[in-house]
Amino acid sequence: MEKSSGVIRKLEKPVLTRKDIPFDSALVFNAGVCKYGGRYVMVFRNDYGDVEKRKLSGTNNGLAFSDDGINWEVSPKPFFAVKTDEISRVYDVRLTVTEGVMYACFACDTRHGLRGGVGRVRDDFSGIDIISLSAPDNRNMALFPEKIGGKYVMLERPMPVYSRGRDAFDIWVCDSPDLVYWGNHKLVAGIENVPFANNKIGPAAPPVRTEKGWLTTFHAVELIPGRGKNGWEDRWEKIYRAGIMLLDPDDPSKVKGLYDKPLIVCDRDFELEDGFRRDTVFPGGMILEDDGEVKIYYGASDTVECMASADVNDLINLCLSGAQPG
Ligand code: BMA
Asked: Fewer CB atoms < 10 Å away: N or C end of the chain?
């Protein structure tokens, strides 16, 4: 079986599964995580439905808190769900604390396309106030934890279906004076820069600042036509792996190094067992601790939420060992 990088240490079980959720829950995954007010805060995606019949009926997002980043207490009610005539659901939240304020980037399904949202998490955790929604289609966004050159900065993954073909998506960066008006879009990395992707790549957890630059995970998708049944659906032909790269501290459109092999793959039974979409790793949270430990939170098989850790210098060295695209 394909293995995660040797620098990665995984916990022996997921940090959150549907069994931990005090409300209707079938799949718990793709969480955003940050440190705020001395605690760890998580917003996780919760797809609910009938697990026995393998039928999903909706999505909301739950909230959880932790003192150590490993043991989580889940709030009793769903935290963030939007359903209007226009918006059918919001999901895959990534949390970033910038200048002491907690923001959330999230995906938003609408009648007129897939949009990426930026919102402010209320101080009393009563919800998220939406600040801006991107033009469609663009739903994978991750905000940097600091302004650069006086501007908010965000990684994003526009979806140029008309010109690039289905699913040929890359990682871009843009900036904004106010989190509403986004511009100055630049390409960060293309699919061709990631040897283990043939389909699409996209931002994962919000970047963390290190002495060598912005360290950031990304998701990389390999499509294997004919791979067949790998989960609940009749067909799941994609493999989602997590990669890692290092971006220039002052100009994050410049890649200082990109590790040319997968960082995290699904290689544990608890990541695969009864998985909705097996072999899917989707990181949404990354925390750099004072002692150099990096915690990476990722959805596994679109079914459970897991955590792995690594030493920050090991991750930087991996990026610099395969230094491209330059
Ligand atoms: C993407 C998103 C993610 C999901 C992934 C794999 O397109 O929908 O939420 O984890 O597919 O199913």
From this structure: N
In a domain, 128, yes or no: yes
User: What residue type is 246 in one-letter code?
Assistant: L
Tell me the CA–centroid distance for residue 149 and ligand 1, in Å: 32
Give 181-192 pLDDT, tens digit per residue.
999 999 999 999
Given a contact cutoff of 8 angstroms between Cβ atoms, the answer to whether 268 and 282 are in contact is no
292: tokens are 């150099």
Q: Which atom belonging to ligand 1 lies closest to the Cα atom of 91?
A: 9
pLDDT in the model for residue 120 = 98
Choice from 27, 227, 302, 303 to test ligand 1 binding pocket (greatest atom count within 8 A of CB): 302
- Whether residue 1 lies inside any domain: the answer is no
Number of domains forming the structure of the chain: 1
Structure letter (DSSP) for residue 134: P
Q: Is residue 4 part of a domain?
A: no
Q: What's 92's domain CATH number?
A: 2.115.10.20
Across 83-170, the runs of DSSP E, i.e. the strands, are 87-98, 101-110, 113-121, 128-133, 138-143, 152-158
- Domain with 107, as residue range(s), is 14-321
Residue list, ligand 1 pocket, CB within 6 Å: 30, 92, 240, 277, 280, 282, 299, 302
Which pTM does this prediction carry? 0.97
C-alpha 76, offset from chain centre = 24
DSSP symbol at 18: G
Asked whether the predicted pLDDT for residue 64 surpasses 90, the reply is: yes
The values of phi and psi at residue 48, to 5°, are -120, 165
